[in-house]
Amino acid sequence: MKWTFPNLRLFLALAVITGGIYPLAVTLVSLVLFPHQAHGSLIRNERGEVIASELIAQPFTSARYFWPRPSAGDYATMPSGASNLSWTSGELVKTVAERRAALLKAHNLPEETPVPADMLFASGSGLESFISPEAAEFQLNRVAAARGLPPEKIRELVAEHFVRGGILGENVINVMTLNAALDKLPRG
User: Fold this and answer.
1) Which residues, at least 6 apart from 75, have a Cβ–Cβ distance to it below 8 Å?
2) 188 is a domain residue
3) Is residue 77 domain-resident?
4) Are residues 4 and 46 in the same domain?
5) Measured between alpha carbons, how far is 5 from 12 in angstroms, rounded to an integer?
6) The Cα angle at residue 155 between residues 152 and 161, in degrees rounded to 5
7) How many CB atoms lie within 10 A of CB 96?
8) Same domain, 74 and 138
């Protein structure tokens, strides 16, 4: 009994600090220093309506848009995650072959055309909103043709959404911000 009350006081003090004061302080600092990110990195259209988040991919199927990486969870946020199929899985081999065939068909490319890996394999979360510059270049002519715009105009827009990976990261393109910017272009 001698240790019960001091331990209970310590527990309550730590619960208030770690469960209340610290999260509140971090939230307030993030709201002041990083308001865009603290509110979900939301993308808004011309009317101010929220259309997406920069951080969560959506399934684009129209030829007018750049497509994100495939999703093992069909881009659902609650059951997001990977398929957990190993590199030797027959199901993974079949899925990748189907994705490859569909991509080549959608882009009217010959069978021997290399396809960027991030267009074939889902990310760990299944919600990856970034693609490689190679994946953007792979899709560029399809998007330009569907929008009736010269490929160079689309290439300039892709370059504006290039995110340098830094020392350890990879260079990427944010598909969500790129697609939102595409909708702001004059129709070709």
Assistant:
1) 56, 57, 58, 59, 126, 127
2) no
3) yes
4) no
5) 10
6) 150
7) 18
8) yes
Q: Are residues 34 and 120 in the same domain?
A: no
How deeply is 57 buried, as exposed, middle or buried, from its count of CB atoms within 10 A (0-12, 13-18, 19+)? buried
Q: Are 116 and 132 in contact (CB under 8 A)?
A: yes
Number of domains in the chain: 2
Q: Which residues constitute the domain of residue 95? A: 42-182
Residues in the chain: 188
Measured CA angle at 21 (ends 20, 26), to 5 deg: 105
Distances (CA, A) of 84 to 79, 100, 122, 126, 131: 13, 19, 10, 11, 21
Which regions of the chain are under pLDDT 50?
Answer: none
pLDDT score of 32: 96
- What is the rounded distance in angstroms from the CA atom of residue 163 to the CA atom of residue 165? 6
- Cα–Cα distance, 57 to 35 (Å, whole number): 21
